[in-house]
Amino acid sequence: EVQLQASGGGWVQPGGSLRLSCAASGFMFSEWGMSWVRQAPGKEIEWVSTAYGGESTGGTAYADSVTGRFTISRDNTKNTLDLQMNNLKSEDTAVYYCTNGEYRGQGTLVTVSS
Q1: How far apart are CA 98 and CA 12, in angstroms?
Q2: b/e map of 58-84 (b: 16 or more CB within 10 Å)?
Q3: Of 31, 43, 42, 41, which Cα lies nearest the Cα of 102?
Q4: What is the pLDDT of residues 75-107, one digit of tens each?
Q5: Whole-angstrom Cα distance, residue 24 to residue 3?
């Protein structure tokens, strides 16, 4: 059974930082590209970032809206995916999910407000 459990969300003021983590199990984690996506209130799901797997391990990609502020990383020995989020803005408020492209786990809420 595939499990993807995101954690680390919370409330932060604009300009602050949070680090999200995702614990994965039930599939060959190292071989899969892993992504963070988010869904803001009343909006559709938005892709945030990807850490490539398999032969492309080490490669990353970011949405323009988070480039320079967010950093994705993965630990294939622990089957974890992290997202370091710096200089957070109110528009980053959303439920954040990790996904391997086929499964999307339970999300974690990030609220950025003063």
Answers
A1: 20
A2: eeeebeeebeeebbbebeeeebbbbbe
A3: 31
A4: 999 999 999 999 999 999 999 999 999 999 899
A5: 6
